[in-house]
Structure formats: C-alpha cells, structure tokens
C-alpha cells in the first residue's frame, strides 16, 4: 500500500482540482450556451433581452447573414425574415437596448470582421450621441468580444452560465426554434399600449423652459461630432460596397415635450439635421426621418411609454424604407424639426395634452 505523504496528498488534490476545472470548462465549450464557438444546432440558445450583450457576441460571429439591424430598443421589433423579403439578403438583429454609438460600433466591428455585409439598417437615437464617444452606455462582457481566447476563462467559469444557462440549454436538448431569429429581443407583445401609459409621469403646464443653444445650422456639437466621426463614419468610408440605411425613430410627441422641459429640445432637433448633413456626404447612405410622422407620434395608442412604439410601426418603417429613397437632403430634416417644435409649442400653450393638434406647414 502506497503511503499517503503530504506531497502525494497535495499532488492528488491538485490533480483533482485541475480535472474538475477542465471538466467545467470543457462542458461550457462543448455546449456553448451563447454560441461563442459555433451556432447552436442541438438545443435552443438562451437568447433574450436579459442576455442580449452576451448573445450578440455569438450571433454576430456565428450566424449566417449579410445584412444587419443596428440600434437601440427602437429596432428590436423588426422582423428579419420580413426585412429579407423587402430588401433581399439575410438580416440579423444586433441591437443593444439603450446602447450608445460606441456599443453599436462594437456590434459592427464584429459583423464586418467576420462577414461580407451587404446592408445595414441603423436606428439613430440622437440623444445616444450625447454620451462620450468611447463610453458604452450598456456595459458589455468585453472578454466575449475580443480575439484573445484566454479571456474566455470568464465565460467558462461564469456562475450564471454554470448555474442557469447551461441547465437551460440541456433542458431543450434535441429541440430547435426556427422562429428565434425573428423573435429575438422583440418586446412588442409584452406591454400594454395607450394614452395612460404613454403619458405616465408626464407633467404639463404653460411654463416656458429655456433651451440649450445649439450650434449653427447643420453643424454638429463637439460630442455629436466625436460620436459620428469615430463610431459611424469609419464604416461608411471603409465599406463603400455596403448600403447604410439610417432612420430617426418616431418617438411620441410627449417625449419631445419632455426634452423641451429639460432644455434639450432645440439641441436634439438641430443635431438630427447636422447628423443627416454629415451622413449624406456618402453615396452609400440613405437617411429616413420619421420624427414628425404626425399620424404616428400624436396617436398614443402606438406607445407603451413616451419613447417606445409598437411593432406595427417597425413594420411600416421597413416597408417605407424599402420603397422610398429617403430624405433628399438635410433641409427636409430641418422642416421636420420645425414641425415638432410647433407641435410642442401647442402643448405649452395649452398646458396639457391637447384634444386636437393644429397641423400646418412649418415656417422658419
């Protein structure tokens, strides 16, 4: 019988620890809940709004696609198969809920590094361009987005992966979900809609709020310029073969009034105009502006809050983008800004949400 000396005991213990750690890492690598190494084919991947920043790393690398949806929650209700039918190609959603332009750049970096991208549909939230251009608004697991594989140790031994997502994958072993590509991140049927929800927490009165002074017409602020030039323009320049379809989302008018109360309305409106002017310098860009679609933004039955519209609006946006060329220049965006400002003025004058808005062509 071999005597168990302290040295042998230590060696056996270390061997068992190494074996256990190797087994844990091997299980994560083999099953791969977030599809970092391969697309899931034997189970239903745990893709949800709660796993978005993790799931996108695998989706961006491993799925087959040639077209992207980029943007915030304003883009999450697009249906890739419907976009395929409208535009051609094969779309995938790489949305980041509440993301900044830096977050969206992270998604495009991986997509362009790993795929030949034919088309990008990009939802532009102007307020997201107010964040520092190298600052993620949504924190990302950087170890899943870099090319340094030893960093994956954070994935292999992640407590949530081991305790929750690995068992979830095993529970769906042998099953598939053909509709997952369309349904991922969509939230349209999860919330109630209507005036009560769109105006929840809104405060209306006739008080006049001073506005931050915007730059000269069609000039970006320093912060907007840094975001656009560092996180968007490099892709337009490096990929002239790719068509970029940018759109300004149709927030409800209540959101624009909220911007007015914080003093940001004039700045946000002017920056949309300036961003449009810069983007339209590129021949592979089309810009669409839905901010002043009064049939949408005044009908609060379209909204779950003052920002977020239902999936039928995403569908209408996609159909419009597929059949129209977009705005003809930044002056068209300026006219929409004037329309919004005039509608906000009617709320201020009434001190409440008006029963009826007067719709007329804007004047400078």
**Computed Rg:** 24 Å
Assign a percent range to the helix content.
40-55%
Low-pLDDT segments:
none
Write down the overall mean pLDDT. Answer: 94
- The portion of residues forming beta strands comes to 5-15%
In DSSP terms (H or I, runs of 4 or more residues), the helix count works out at 15
Q: Assign the structural class, choosing from mainly alpha, mainly beta, alpha/beta, alpha+beta, or little secondary structure.
A: alpha/beta
Q: Number of DSSP strands?
A: 5
What order do the strands of the largest sheet run in, or round the barrel if closed? Answer: 2-1-3-4-5
Outline type: elongated
Q: Quick one: biggest sheet?
A: 5 strands, parallel
In angstroms, what separates the terminal alpha carbons?
A: 97 Å
What's the SSE pattern?
A: HHEHEHEHHHHHHEHHEHHH
Short description:
The chain is of the alpha/beta class. The chain contains 15 helices and 5 strands. It starts with 5 loop residues before the first helix and ends in a 14-residue tail after the last helix.
Can you tell me about this structure?
This protein is an alpha/beta fold and 364 residues long. It has a domain of 142 residues. The protein contains 15 helices and 5 strands. It has a 5-stranded parallel sheet. Strand 1, helix 3 and strand 2 form a beta-alpha-beta unit.
Layout of SSEs?
Blueprint: H1 6-31, H2 52-62, E1 67-70, H3 80-87, E2 91-93, H4 101-114, E3 119-123, H5 153-156, H6 159-171, H7 180-183, H8 195-198, H9 222-231, H10 233-238, E4 243-248, H11 253-261, H12 265-279, E5 285-289, H13 294-297, H14 311-323, H15 330-350
Parallel strand pairs: 1-2, 1-3, 3-4, 4-5
Helix pairs in contact: 2-4, 3-14, 11-15, 12-15
């Amino acid at each position: 019988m071999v005597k168990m000396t302290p040295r042998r005991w230590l060696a056996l213990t270390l061997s068992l620890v190494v074996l256990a750690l190797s087994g844990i890492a091997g299980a994560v690598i083999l099953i791969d809940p977030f599809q970092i190494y391969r697309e899931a084919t034997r189970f239903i991947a745990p893709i949800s709004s709660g796993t978005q920043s993790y799931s996108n790393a695998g989706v961006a690398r491993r799925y087959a696609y040639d077209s992207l949806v980029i943007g915030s929650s304003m883009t999450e209700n697009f249906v890739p198969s419907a976009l395929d039918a409208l535009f051609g190609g094969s779309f995938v959603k790489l949305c980041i809920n509440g993301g900044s332009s830096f977050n969206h750049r992270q998604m495009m970096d991986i997509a362009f590094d790993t795929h030949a991208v034919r088309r990008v549909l990009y939802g532009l939230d102007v307020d997201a361009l107010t964040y520092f251009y190298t600052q993620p608004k949504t924190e990302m697991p950087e170890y899943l987005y870099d090319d340094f594989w030893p960093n994956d140790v954070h994935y292999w031994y992640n407590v949530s992966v081991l305790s929750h997502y690995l068992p979830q994958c095993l529970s769906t072993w042998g099953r598939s979900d053909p509709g997952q590509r369309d349904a991922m991140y969509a939230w349209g049927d999860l919330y109630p809609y209507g005036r009560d929800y769109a105006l929840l927490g809104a405060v209306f009165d006739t008080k006049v709020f001073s506005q931050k002074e915007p730059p000269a017409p069609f000039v970006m602020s320093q912060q907007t310029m840094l975001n656009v030039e560092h996180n968007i323009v490099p892709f337009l320049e490096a990929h002239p073969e790719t068509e970029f379809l940018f759109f300004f989302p149709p927030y409800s008018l209540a959101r624009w009034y909220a911007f007015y109360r914080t003093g940001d309305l004039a700045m946000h409106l002017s920056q949309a105009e300036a961003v449009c002017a810069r983007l339209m310098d590129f021949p592979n860009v089309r810009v669409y502006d839905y901010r002043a679609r009064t049939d949408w933004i005044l009908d609060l039955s379209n909204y779950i809050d003052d920002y977020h519209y239902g999936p039928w609006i995403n569908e209408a946006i996609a159909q419009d983008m597929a059949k129209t060329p977009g705005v003809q220049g930044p002056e068209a965006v300026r006219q929409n800004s004037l329309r919004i400002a005039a509608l906000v003025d009617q709320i201020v004058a009434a001190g409440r949400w008006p029963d009826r808005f007067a719709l007329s062509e804007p004047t400078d």
